[in-house]
Fold this sequence. Notes:
The complex is a heterodimer of chains A (about 80) and B (about 240). Chain A is an all-alpha fold. Chain A has one domain (about 1-75). Chain A contains four helices and no strands. The radius of gyration of chain A is 23 Å and the shape is rod-shaped. The mean pLDDT of chain A is about 90. Chain B has a domain at about 50-180 and about 195-220. Chain B is globular. Chain B has helices spanning about 5-40, 55-80, 85-115, 125-145, 150-165, 165-175, 195-230. Helix content of chain B is about 75%, strand content about 0%. By secondary structure, chain B is mainly α. At the A-B interface, helix 2, helix 3 and helix 4 of A face helix 1, helix 2, helix 3 and helix 7 of B.
Amino acid sequence: MIAEFILMNGYGLYVWSSFSVVLISCVALYLRTKKTLKKYENDFLIELQNLSAKEKNKVLENSKVAQHILAANTKIN
Amino acid sequence: MFKFFSFSNIYSLIQNLINFINSVFFLILIIGLTFALVFSPPDYVQGDSVRIMYVHVPAAWLGLACFALITLLSILNFIFKIKNFYFINKSIAPIGLLFTCLAIITGSLWGHPTWGTWWEWDARLTSMFVLMIFYVFYILAFKLLNEEELIIKISSIIAIVGSINLPIIKYSVEWWTTLHQPASIKIVGSSSIHSEMLLPLLVMLLVFLLYGALIFLMKYKTEIIRIKKKNLKRI
């Protein structure tokens, strides 16, 4: 039964290749996108840390995005 | 109203949507794959090779839909100068390219056992290939050009010219004699696909939609961070 499922009456190679290509491509794009997002988040945090305490507070007061990134990163760490 | 569309509010919304998609995606994926590979019946002519439809058709539909959306937003950006559309388009384009490439590759894998050839320069296949080329040029405009105004202008021209190809893709199977079969699913009129095959197809379409939305949200989030980082000292 398992062999039947894998072979798919002789079409297994085409069917499994199609699903595999889709899966591999989608996973690759997801990982690449996630890596880029993480890199930009880290770069943003480094830039934020390089600001003076006064500037940093001002940014955190005025930017919800900065608050979110900082909060998410603190949670992870 | 406009305050709601500020980057800060959008950013929170994006995070919530990403969390939601992450929580339901794998469940829907497993349901879709089980239906597509196990429960759905083989076709009486094409046999089990018909299962390729469950990845080929959603990929092709979304490849076309992404380009249609890019064109619409490019036109709106031309008229109303809403910069946000530029970032949305930049985030959508790679997803559209991926889906178009996947439609071509899986179509080729489906074509070999069905038509006896991997590739034929017929109307449907060629027009899909042209769409892929337009996507490549569109993305290259963002990668190679530096000036934002110029990128908007060039990418919009590519999108608007490329959109001429969309009806050609849709009606190519009716206007010309092609190897590709005519549409089995119609929005207007009755579809010729059996419900036992339609259901898995719709579930797989949902899977592709959720995946596309997830990648779009992640890319859009990256764009927001990039802009905020650039303007950090100005905040």
